[in-house]
């Protein structure tokens, strides 16, 4: 039973009382909101949630699939910084370098640029190369091309150490996953992904109606 309707006022209240957004994050978000594709940006509440996960998991290696303007990477790298682990790193993947310099400028401003590496190439190719090289991740955040989410998920599970987590954004896609016969192929992909993860015995899961829907899956240790 839904006890509190998730209204815009409730979201504003949560953002005011349950989110500590640094000045660098606020400025980067403000710049990003002026872009034509600003809807791709995660919310501050999602960012704060990602940072908290980073602090709880204490990952040595994070992989982010989908960089955009570097806002979510900055949130996660802030979590790495707060753990005082200079050897920990975040690799962020994107097919375009359109906003790379913007992202880097705010990473430098926040003092986390030395812990973030951006790879510009198709994410599935970069992930496969990491897998082939023997790289092991503790945490993967997926927020990129929805049509490839099934592929990203499988690669993430292979890259994760036992006990590692994958976080997937946009699993509700504005509620379109409820459609019986969706016209858009990427909605069908999201429906398939959500069903796959629900039945996937390799992981323990939680889907939350935060932002546009987030699923957290922890790879089992056996």
CATH topology: Rossmann fold
Structural class: alpha/beta
CATH class: Alpha Beta
Counted beta strands: 7
Instruction: Kindly give the count of domains.
Output: 1
Mean pLDDT: 95
Strand order of the largest sheet: 3-2-1-4-5-7-6
The gyration radius over C-alpha positions equals 17 Å
- Shape designation: globular
Written as H for each helix and E for each strand, in order along the chain, the element string is HHHEHEHEHEHEHEE
Query: What share of the residues does DSSP label as strand, in percent?
Result: 15-25%
- For the record, the CATH architecture stands as 3-Layer(aba) Sandwich
Number of helices: 8
Description:
It is a single chain. The protein has 222 residues and is an alpha/beta fold. The protein has one domain (40-219): Rossmann fold (3-Layer(aba) Sandwich), CATH 3.40.50.150. Helices cover 42% and strands 20% of the residues. Helix 2 (23-32) packs antiparallel against helix 5 (100-110), helix 3 (44-57) packs parallel to helix 4 (71-82) and helix 6 (123-133) runs parallel beside helix 7 (149-159). The longest helix has 15 residues, at 185-199. It starts with 7 loop residues before the first helix and ends with a strand. The mean pLDDT is 95.
């Amino acid at each position: 039973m839904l006890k509190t309707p998730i209204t815009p006022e409730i979201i504003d209240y949560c953002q005011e009382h349950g989110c500590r957004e640094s000045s660098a994050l606020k400025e980067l978000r403000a710049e990003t909101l002026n872009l034509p594709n600003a809807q791709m940006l995660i919310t501050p509440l999602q960012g704060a949630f990602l940072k908290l996960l980073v602090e709880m998991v204490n990952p040595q290696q994070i992989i982010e699939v989908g960089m955009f303007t570097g806002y979510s990477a900055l949130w996660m790298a802030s979590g790495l910084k707060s753990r005082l682990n200079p050897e920990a790193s975040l690799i962020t993947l994107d097919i375009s370098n359109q906003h790379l310099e913007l992202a880097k400028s705010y990473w430098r401003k926040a003092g986390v640029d030395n812990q973030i590496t951006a790879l510009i190439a198709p994410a599935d190719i970069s992930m496969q190369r990491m897998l082939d090289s023997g790289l092991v991740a503790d945490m993967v955040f997926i927020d990129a091309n929805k049509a490839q989410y099934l592929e990203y998920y499988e690669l993430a599970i292979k890259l994760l150490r036992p006990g590692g987590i994958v976080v997937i954004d946009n699993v509700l896609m504005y509620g379109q996953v409820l459609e019986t016969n969706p016209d858009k192929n990427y909605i069908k992909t999201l429906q398939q992904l959500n069903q796959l993860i629900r039945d996937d015995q390799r992981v323990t899961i939680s889907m939350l109606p935060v932002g546009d829907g987030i699923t957290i899956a922890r790879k089992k240790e056996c």
